[in-house]
Write a structure and sequence with these properties.
The structure holds two protein chains of two kinds.
Chain A: H1 3-33, H2 44-55, H3 65-73, H4 82-95, H5 102-116, H6 120-149, H7 154-187, H8 194-204, H9 208-215, H10 221-230, H11 238-252, H12 263-275, H13 279-282, H14 286-309
Chain B: E1 25-27, E2 30-31, H1 36-43, H2 47-64, E3 67-70, E4 78-81, E5 84-91, H3 93-117, H4 122-125, H5 131-135, E6 157-164, E7 170-176, H6 183-196, H7 198-203, H8 212-221, E8 233-236, H9 245-255, E9 259-260, E10 265-268, E11 271-276, E12 279-282, E13 285-288, H10 292-295, H11 311-316, E14 321-323, H12 334-337, H13 340-348, E15 355-356, E16 360-361, H14 365-373, E17 378-382, E18 392-393, H15 399-411, E19 416-420, E20 426-431, E21 436-450, E22 455-457, E23 462-466, E24 480-487
Parallel strand pairs in B: 5-24, 7-15, 8-9, 8-13, 13-14
Antiparallel strand pairs in B: 1-2, 3-4, 6-7, 6-21, 10-11, 11-12, 16-19, 17-18, 17-19, 20-21, 21-22, 21-23, 23-24
Helix pairs in contact in B: 2-6, 3-13
The chains are: A mainly alpha, B alpha+beta.
Chain lengths: ~300, ~500
């Protein structure tokens, strides 16, 4: 596989995953807030700040809800909007057009046309739910085509490495964002039903039902963090995502001795840390663990690009 | 008595052209025999049905990415599909057989001609073709002199454009021997039509076009450099912003081979390699969709960012095959076109099967005089342009424009040829603005593959249609569309 094409596929995977997380987060946060237990004080600014924080937009001047929704969703000038992520996913797919199946290409391309032609008026008046749900549905179809129409070899593995790396980054951002929300609520001296924020966090990662099934109890802070960080069976947990990166990196690796400088070694080391971590190990410094993981996954991503994707 | 309104078919309002050869109708409401089935079928559709199918096809094209971007200042690029008309052109098998034989004959002769002018130059010594004409062509490459490509094949992929005149006969309009494009539309058009009008294919025996990528792959394999058993074959594209990128990626994908850009390749010790995730991998055959002048900055344009430094050395060392060979453009020079019938006789000792259009070359004194006196009645073409660029059609020019054309010709007589205004045949074509079928001019681009041991002509080719009323230029760059082309069994 050409390094340039691998680069396109890797970033295609990352942008698809990123758009999905942004859409899901926006949808869950926005609609959960409509009947939040502390509705009176849970003002709209709070929701908007949370969405902007998740999207990594820190210089937004307007506080009008419509402006925020537009900036996060359909603003072509904002490189962090959902639309921009979908455009970039499609451009990378186009750059690797001959390496992916017709089925996968057509799904990504039609996804792109749906998003770029989405009516801004509809989106801002009645379409926010439909728009974000469409992103989630289209991502599912794209994922299905990745698994169902590509040989389970190099191209497939590179896309999935990109998706899993992005998943780690996004789940860290989601947890950070929600912890930040809860901190602000506490700082404001507001009391919320404890389970509400943790339920919302689980829903942001599409993990609420799995969590209930696993623990059969009302979610609380450390139960949720244990689930999202350490659970080996939850598809979007950090631990499981790291296992995914290892699995797919092995698919593209040609035989090499794993010394401490290799990518395989570094991912393995991080995953092993997670495998033997307990809540007690991080409960006093959740941010510390999140920052450490973010730093390590960024380092692994850079080395992966240097080794396989440079051209 | 209340009369039931007579329901007309959607083609019943069509008024056949009486000046130009009409491909579909003999006269009003009377289709030619080979069109009867499809006209009956179309006439069973309501206009609403037809527009629905038309929209479905457009969506299918959009989703396949058969689009080009229109850039406007301060606006995001607008993606538009290449116009496609649902009503296919039909060519009876016996008519097609002649075209197929004629195209193979012509391209075989041209290939022999290229080999000759880059080696012994017998045809020039025998004065069948003027030597000056060849050596003055900017497309005659000194780097190709005395070099023999694998299998002595220069033109692996040829696009021969034909028209049908008022006499109902095919005429060759031009040869495209460098990077002829359009074949992906043939395959995509067929797919779109099969999806939307599948019943028609049950009724009519239409020859398949889907072998083309396989045939192209096999042809490329036949010209592998020596001692390579399992060649690595690639398609080289200028990149995703090139207007033909859809075609480049389509062909690479259908052949199952990598689509590479110049920056993915490098040359080391006269071997070409591509940069893969596991290090360099040797490349043996390159189907290049990059023009000669951009191929190798060491040999041609030094500012080329699209090519590969050292590629020509690797080629001349016999370590990689380029398809088509560099330097083939000298034979599709429109001034050389005039000599192709003689070229066919010279090398094959056969009469040309397909007709040439009478051509005046402005570099010849008599021809120049005639052309300057008759610009208003002629089509004037630059010899080395493609895509319909630089062409003027005398009957559409103002007096001032005619004078401008004369000035241009006199400034560079070698650059221009002129031909009588050929009357391209017309074909019923759906016009969205009027919601009716109207006659529109069409031509036909055929695709011929030539390998070491085989020739193959795609059944039917690409019918290009000038969508503007009265327009004779069918190129997509000039607002043309296309039609599926059926060769019937």
């Amino acid at each position: 596989m050409l390094s340039r094409v691998a680069n396109n596929l890797y970033w295609m995977g990352r942008y698809i995953e990123r758009a999905e997380h942004l859409a899901r987060y926006g949808k869950v946060i926005y609609f959960s807030s409509l009947d939040a237990p502390i509705l009176k004080t849970y003002d709209r600014n709070f929701v908007q700040e949370s969405m902007l924080y998740m999207a990594g937009i820190f210089d937004m001047k307007s506080t009008l809800e419509k402006d925020v929704l537009f900036t996060v969703g359909l603003d072509a000038q904002n490189s962090r909007s959902i639309l921009s992520n979908v455009v970039l996913a499609r451009e990378n797919a186009r750059g690797a057009r001959s390496a992916i199946s017709t089925e996968l290409w057509e799904v990504i391309n039609s996804y792109y046309h749906l998003v770029t032609n989405y009516s801004v008026d509809t989106y801002l008046t009645s379409g926010f739910y439909d728009f974000t749900q469409m992103i989630l549905d289209k991502t599912s179809i794209v994922r299905d085509k990745i698994h169902g129409t590509l040989l389970h070899e190099g191209e497939w593995a590179i896309i999935l490495i990109g998706m899993y790396i992005e998943r780690v980054v996004q789940v860290i951002s989601i947890i950070n964002s929600k912890l930040n929300d809860i901190y602000k609520i506490e700082q404001a001296g507001l009391v919320t039903e404890n389970s509400f924020e943790w339920t919302t966090l689980l829903k942001c990662v599409e993990a609420f039902d799995m969590n209930r099934k696993y623990y059969t109890s009302i979610p609380d802070k450390f139960q949720v963090l244990e689930f999202l960080l350490l659970n080996q069976s939850c598809p979007r947990s950090i631990s499981n995502s790291l296992k995914g990166i290892i699995r797919y990196e092995e698919k593209i690796r040609i035989y090499e001795k794993l010394d401490s400088n290799t990518i395989g070694f570094k991912i393995g080391k991080l995953q092993q840390k997670y495998q033997y971590l307990t809540v007690d190990d991080f409960k006093d410094d959740v941010y510390g663990l999140l920052n450490y993981t973010h730093e390590k996954i960024t380092e692994i991503g850079s080395e992966l690009e240097k080794k396989y994707l440079s051209f | 008595m209340i009369m039931e309104p007579q329901i007309e078919g959607i083609l019943d309002s069509y008024k056949p052209g009486n000046v130009h050869f009409d491909e579909v109708f003999k006269e009003y409401k009377k289709p030619k025999e080979h069109y009867q089935g499809i006209v009956e079928n179309f006439n069973q559709l309501t206009l609403t049905d037809y527009e629905r199918i038309n929209n479905e096809v457009k969506n299918s094209f959009l989703n396949q990415g058969i689009t080009f971007a229109v850039y406007a200042e301060d606006k995001k690029p607008d993606e538009q599909i290449f116009p496609f008309d649902l009503f296919p052109r039909i060519i009876p098998n016996e008519e097609w057989s002649v075209v197929e034989k004629g195209v193979i004959q012509r391209n075989k002769a041209i290939n022999l001609f290229l080999n000759d002018i880059y080696h012994k130059k017998l045809i020039l010594k025998d004065k069948v073709v003027p030597a000056d004409l060849i050596f003055s062509s900017k497309n005659y490459l000194k780097d190709m002199v005395d070099f023999t490509p694998p299998g002595e094949i220069y033109t692996h992929i040829c696009g021969t454009d034909l028209i049908k005149h008022t006499d109902g006969k095919y005429y060759i309009l031009e040869d495209n021997l460098r990077c002829p494009s359009g074949v992906s539309y043939v395959l995509s058009n067929r797919l779109a039509l099969k999806k939307s009008l599948f019943d028609l294919f049950n009724e009519m025996k239409v020859k398949s076009v889907y072998q083309y990528p396989e045939q192209l792959f096999e042809v490329l394999k036949t010209v592998t450099p020596k001692n390579i058993e399992n060649p690595t074959i690639v398609v080289v594209t200028p990149g995703m912003y090139n207007s033909a990128y859809f075609e480049h990626s389509f062909l690479a994908q259908k052949m199952g081979i990598p689509l590479v850009e110049g920056r993915d390749l490098f040359v080391d010790k006269n071997f070409v390699y591509m940069k893969t995730i596991h290090g360099p991998q040797r490349v043996d055959v390159i189907y290049r969709r990059v023009d000669d002048e951009f191929l190798d900055p060491l040999c041609f344009r030094k500012d080329s960012m699209l090519g590969v430094a050292g590629l020509m050395n690797a080629y001349r060392a016999g370590n990689v095959t380029l398809a088509n060979a560099p330097g083939t453009g000298v034979a599709d020079d429109k001034a050389v076109y005039n000599y192709v019938p003689n070229i066919i006789k010279y090398y094959l000792n056969e009469e040309p099967i397909l007709n040439n259009v009478k051509t005046y070359h402005c570099d010849r004194e008599d021809d120049l005089k005639f052309v300057l006196e008759n610009v208003d009645k002629l089509v004037v073409k630059p010899v080395d342009e493609s895509g319909g660029y630089g062409i003027t059609i005398g009957t559409t020019l103002t007096k001032e424009q005619i004078e401008q054309v004369k000035v241009r010709i006199k400034a560079d007589t070698r650059k221009y040829i002129a031909q009588p205004i050929m009357s391209l045949s017309v074909h019923a074509t759906y016009i969205e603005e009027t919601k009716e079928f109207e006659p529109r001019h069409v031509d036909l681009r055929t695709f011929c593959l030539m390998g070491n041991d085989r020739e193959y002509v795609l059944k039917g080719g690409l019918t290009r249609v000038a969508l503007k009323r009265g327009n004779l230029i069918v190129n997509s760059s000039q607002g043309g569309g296309s039609k599926d082309t059926w060769v019937l069994d």
